[in-house]
Amino acid sequence: MSTSSTSVTAAARRIVVKVGSSLVTNEGRGLDEAAIGEWCRQMAELVRQGREVIMVSSGAIAEGMKRLGWATRPNEIHELQAAAAVGQMGLAHMYETQLRQQGLGSAQVLLTHADLADRERYLNARSTLLTLLAHGVLPVINENDTVVNDEIKFGDNDTLGALVANLVEADLLVILTDQKGLYSADPRKDPHARFIDQARAGDPELEAMAGGAGSSIGKGGMITKILAAKRASGSGASTVIAWGREPDALIRLAAGESLGTLLVAQTAKQQARKQWMADHLQLRGSVTIDAGAVLKVVTEGKSLLPIGMTAVEGEFLRGEVIAIRDPNGSEVARGLANYAAAEARLLCKKPSSEFQDLLGYTGEPEMVHRDNLVLSAKADV
User: Fold this and answer.
1) Cβ 294 vs Cβ 332: under 8 Å
2) Are 223 and 354 in a shared domain?
3) pLDDT of residue 292
4) What residues does 264 pair with on adjacent strands?
5) Residue 188 pLDDT level (bands cut at 50, 70, 90)
6) Residue of 110, 119, 94 lying closest to 25 (CA atoms)
7) Domain assignment of residue 165, yes or no
8) Fewer Cβ within 10 Å of end Cβ, the chain: N or C?
9) What is the sign of the dihedral through the CA atoms of 349, 355, 358 and 363?
């Protein structure tokens, strides 16, 4: 890897780590306590270095199969869901125990793709994860296989890892697998297969190279990892595909060492976010703010508080993108609304201390949090 590419991993502050079921369950023989303990030790070290870490772990179905005495993965959806429900208990307990031994708090978060497709649930999931990270808690995420069937049938946790990287705007997605990384062909079948230590995320040639799944326990092979890297790169996250049993893999990657295959995102994180806000989302309405709020938002980089709002235009829901306009009607920023239009109208010019009386509940203090806000080109400073 070049110096610039090693700095990609060394500079990563927010990291999503995804481990596959064949690693977590030692090829289906049951949860591998020693391996999980190792990853937890390494993740705790990264947190001590001042990084934020999220774990996306497979293994619930495989562990459930073992606990239920099933030798082969069932095809029936309801049986897969039952296995997931049984296995999730063991998986969560294992991570909680191992992380506590490292002095780290943990949280179980079960997500479905639908949670991330719905704007409001997306915003809720994002704020929950960011709150956990702010409190020094390590979220352990798995797909909520018990209630969703098409994800079990077609989905995979590589995709979920990429979606989580998008969700929290991670700097790096690390996919730990049972192979050293990406090869030009399947090394188990082709002796001339060439190891790829670095490439561009989203390069079409990578998809052509990738073969099928190597393990009977999990679902998805190298192709799902390449597509996950492509998806993660959409929000500016680079991806490393590395061998999960490589000693101190996570710590060495964070130190900038060349391990596995690095798929470099071609878009900077902030640039990706601006692009997403600017181009891909339809504006559903706007709020007009006073001159004081313009100063806070544009010059000081603060969140937009309802007390600075003077008017609300359009009909929008929580989680939809709205324009933020100055007193002259010029757009100075846009962002994700924490309140629907009807609620926002009630909150104009009001301090957060009055939200409970006005709405009947207390939500976020901000109308648009600064993390969900981008300045418009003409307002950019």
Assistant:
1) yes
2) no
3) 97
4) 200
5) confident
6) 94
7) yes
8) C
9) positive
Are 41 and 153 members of one domain? yes
- In 3D space, the residue among 285, 316, 299, 297 whose CA is nearest the CA of residue 369 turns out to be 297
Number of domains in the chain: 2
CA distance to 190, 355, 356, per residue, from 124 (Å): 46, 19, 19
Q: How far apart (Å, rounded) are the C-alpha atoms in residues 20 and 339?
A: 38
Based on the domain organization, do 17 and 73 belong to the same domain?
A: yes
DSSP string, 113-176: HHHHHSHHHHHHHHHHHHHHHHTTEEEEEEE-TTT-HHHHHH--HHHHHHHHHHHHT-SEEEEE
Verify that 245 and 314 share a domain, yes or no.
Answer: no
Task: Kindly tell me if the per-residue pLDDT of 381 is higher than 50.
Answer: no
Pair 164, 293 in one domain: no
pLDDT at 153: 46
Report which secondary-structure segment, H or E, holds 309. Answer: strand 309-314
Q: Which of 171, 173, 193 is nearest to 183 (CA)?
A: 193
High-pLDDT (> 90) share of the chain, %: 59
Length of the chain: 381
Domain with 207, as residue range(s), is 3-269
